[in-house]
């Protein structure tokens, strides 16, 4: 394990896993290539040596990986499986939707599924097809699942720790393109960031910008480019969402732009806009804009730059909203 | 209640051409000199395409690429047994199958350059686009094979997947449906010993992967996947069965001699000794030895074939690079639906405004 507290996101993942495995002997890591290989992004590197018998390479099968986690959790273990890429979580979606998310409600609270499913998501990594999806809205649409997306190394450690300790199933989506993008100081030892609480990355009074994961930096850059005085809200937990943070900010600014790289139709921005109209309708000075991926399959990398929202596209939306 | 045996199963294994290039005269399929040379040429072409692609990727000119180095016999031998009406349902490591079905080499490179144009299927080629979600395509092949049966057509479907895919529910469902519906389908499992870093023994306790057919009630057979003649013969036989509505699973035992993809480093999880062991079993080397012994090939012919492949690749690489500059992002809106719905029309217009600012 690294002694330095300046970590990248991928190293923060590793540190959180390691420290939680040290703290709680019931935490268990398994998945495709997570052992000897250390994970295809090296997020689990070294764990198999540090925690003999608690890190397992798995056969190739996502339904199996998720389904086994449900059983492992029933025996009192705390499974933290890795799904190699978020797009392959669809292969285990029925286990997630039909069992993991509702074990608590179906058993009237006698059983639960404290499983944390880690998975890298999102584009901008010049990947093969089916390696760039952002399906957070689909997971958030499943009652009983928590969905978390960090955007910084420090939050990665704190949120992953909270997710592992959470009594309910959590889909923990790691922004692939930020894995090695930058370092920042990460608190050593105990560091927990509560699920369900947004972070305010910038404060201002003319506009509210909401983003998460790899879009937070793009949104912040866009705000800097325009010089607009804006609150930049990093949602961090997609479900359950910190509605209050958004509503309070919109009541102050009267304007809002929501950014995500997933397709627009039925994306999380639609839900955010709905909550704003529910709770802050009379404060609005302009329509809430969505800056998102288009409603097309994520293109392969020769065209992904055109698909992914960037700071220019966000800046245009900011200017339109502020000038409305 | 007495106990009695109600069912017993055996799995056969076939090898015609051994590592030293010697054949079993009883089993060797009767192939014309032209066909033999063509098999050899396709295997060499596949090998060189992969080698050039890895080098291009290392120079940043291609994205992630999955080479089939070491698996040429399994791929070329099986595809050569097909009729043009038979469908091919590949995974993501079967570039040579597209080449054999008429996709020009520069398009293979385009796909690796992240261009959808690279996955365009030549008219009437009867091949599905690459399938990246492991094992998911096996069901499509069952669907095609069932469809052919329902339509009373003779054609079959063949699908390709690896050892890892046999752990996937989709693959078992494909085998089981195929048996239940008399689908005209052949399943070709290239057991290349690794699913990325996970060795075959971790994947399943089953002694063979061919026996995965047993539970589905269909025939399973193992073949030396580095023996192009054995693979050809086993596939020919499997296709005869499949055309009668009897699906077959073939396990071709082979070895992925290079990386899973260019993003992978095999030195982390396997030994040089093991790699050296499999180098001795290389499918091209042994086939070349055999063809020399049969006077089908000599130094001159081998050199001519090699030179022709090199110039073909040079041309393909130049053409691929030239086409890269013509990528129009608007294309992503074009093929999502048969007709552009209003919501996408609006988004397309939005995109054009952004682009032209």
UniProtKB/TrEMBL annotation, chain A:
Keyword Transmembrane assigned: no
Superkingdom in the source lineage: Archaea
InterPro entries xref list: THDP-binding, Transketo_C/PFOR_II, Transketolase-like_Pyr-bd, Transketolase_C
EC number: 1.2.4.-
Molecular function in Gene Ontology: oxidoreductase activity
Keywords: Oxidoreductase, Thiamine pyrophosphate
Pfam families: Transket_pyr, Transketolase_C
Top-rank EC class of the record's enzyme: oxidoreductase
Cofactor: thiamine diphosphate
One GO-annotated biological process of the protein: organic acid metabolic process
Domain named Transketolase-like pyrimidine-binding: residues: 7-181
Name of the protein in question: Alpha-ketoacid dehydrogenase subunit beta
Species the sequence originates in: Halobaculum lipolyticum
UniProtKB/TrEMBL annotation, chain B:
Biological process annotations from GO: organic acid metabolic process; sulfur compound biosynthetic process
Superkingdom of the source species: Archaea
Keyword tRNA processing carried by entry: no
GO MF annotation list: oxidoreductase activity
UniProtKB keywords: Oxidoreductase, Pyruvate
Annotated Dehydrogenase E1 component domain residues: 41-323
Entry-linked InterPro entries: Alpha-ketoacid_DH_E1_comp, DH_E1, PdhA/BkdA, THDP-binding
Protein name, as recorded: Pyruvate dehydrogenase (Acetyl-transferring) E1 component subunit alpha
Gene transcribed to yield this protein: pdhA
